[in-house]
């Protein structure tokens, strides 16, 4: 499935060709598709490795960032596993972009059949986020490539968020309907009126949606896909919690102990990223667009959760 105009095609044969060029000792290991996100395609290599091929040149830069910083951050996220880079692939004849190989992490994404206790998962996730945010950040001279819009303020995003709202309105609400879309726009505008964040910059994962978490034996086991790794304000970090069931979400709020302003800014971020994903992917990736729609509906359905922080 092609998601972006500048996307580079890749499949199992691509992986095999790259391995023959750069890691011939792995070239005959079994290669199996292991899922695909909006930024990367994944392939399991043998029993212990995972190959990630970026879809675009932009996401290839994100892989380099992971290789640079994940080894230093991993100890701060213990006991939760994070991806361990083991090979820095370079462009080859079969694929023109950098690529990566990681240790395989056993687990499955959070789902009703894989999570024993959603409240416990929410509490554990809040703990992982706290430890990540407490990790020492590099000084400003060493932060090249670590700036990202989700670590900034809401105001500079208003233009493109408004454009996506307009696109969805022109599409009849894309399954939300005009009334819900108007309420979501109100949540976004409310966020714009809040004071700007003023706390210290912290390490941010950037995209803690359920597909970037792994569980084992019913409990949180790993945090994966640090392509959005950045240093900035933590408001948007909490936004993907609206992708989780209400029990996990409420437990997260209790454990995170966010200020009301941070909570409301994170809710506005959930709306911003949700409307962008729903608009951008509604034709190219209907499944992901449906996830974005579900997040937006959860924001509306969870209006009474505002007292939780």
TrEMBL record:
InterPro entries: AGP_Transferase, Aminoglycoside_PTrfase, Kinase-like_dom_sf
Annotated Aminoglycoside phosphotransferase domain residues: 33-269
Signal peptide boundaries: none
Protein's UniProt name: Aminoglycoside phosphotransferase domain-containing protein
Species this chain originates from: Kitasatospora setae (strain ATCC 33774 / DSM 43861 / JCM 3304 / KCC A-0304 / NBRC 14216 / KM-6054)
Lineage: Bacteria, Bacillati, Actinomycetota, Actinomycetes, Kitasatosporales
């Amino acid at each position: 499935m092609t998601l972006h105009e500048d996307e580079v095609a890749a499949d199992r044969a691509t992986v095999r060709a790259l391995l023959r060029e750069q890691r011939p000792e792995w070239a005959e290991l079994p290669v199996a598709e292991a899922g695909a996100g909006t930024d990367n395609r994944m392939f399991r290599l043998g029993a212990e490795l995972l190959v990630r091929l970026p879809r675009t040149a932009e996401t290839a830069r994100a892989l380099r960032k992971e290789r640079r910083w994940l080894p230093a951050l991993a100890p701060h996220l213990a006991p939760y596993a994070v991806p361990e880079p083991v090979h820095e692939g370079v462009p080859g004849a079969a694929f023109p972009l950098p690529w990566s190989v990681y240790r395989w992490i056993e687990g499955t994404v959070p789902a009703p059949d894989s999570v024993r206790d959603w409240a416990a998962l929410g509490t554990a996730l809040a703990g992982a986020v706290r430890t990540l945010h407490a990790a020492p950040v590099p000084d400003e001279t060493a932060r090249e490539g670590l700036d990202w819009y989700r670590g900034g303020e809401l105001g500079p995003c208003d233009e493109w968020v408004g454009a996506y709202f307009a696109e969805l309105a022109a599409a009849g609400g894309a399954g939300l309907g005009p009334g819900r879309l108007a309420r979501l726009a109100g949540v976004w505008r409310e966020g714009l009126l809040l004071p700007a964040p003023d706390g210290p910059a912290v390490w941010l994962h950037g995209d803690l949606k359920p597909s970037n978490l792994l569980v084992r034996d019913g409990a949180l086991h790993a945090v994966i896909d640090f392509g959005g790794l950045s240093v900035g304000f933590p408001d948007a970090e909490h936004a993907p919690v609206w992708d989780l069931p209400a029990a996990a979400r409420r437990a997260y709020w209790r454990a995170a102990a966010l200020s009301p302003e941070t909570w409301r800014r994170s809710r506005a971020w959930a709306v911003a990223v949700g409307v962008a994903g729903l608009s951008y992917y509604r034709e190219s990736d209907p499944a992901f667009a449906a996830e974005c729609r579900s997040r937006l509906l959860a924001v509306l359905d969870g209006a009474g959760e505002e007292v939780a922080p």
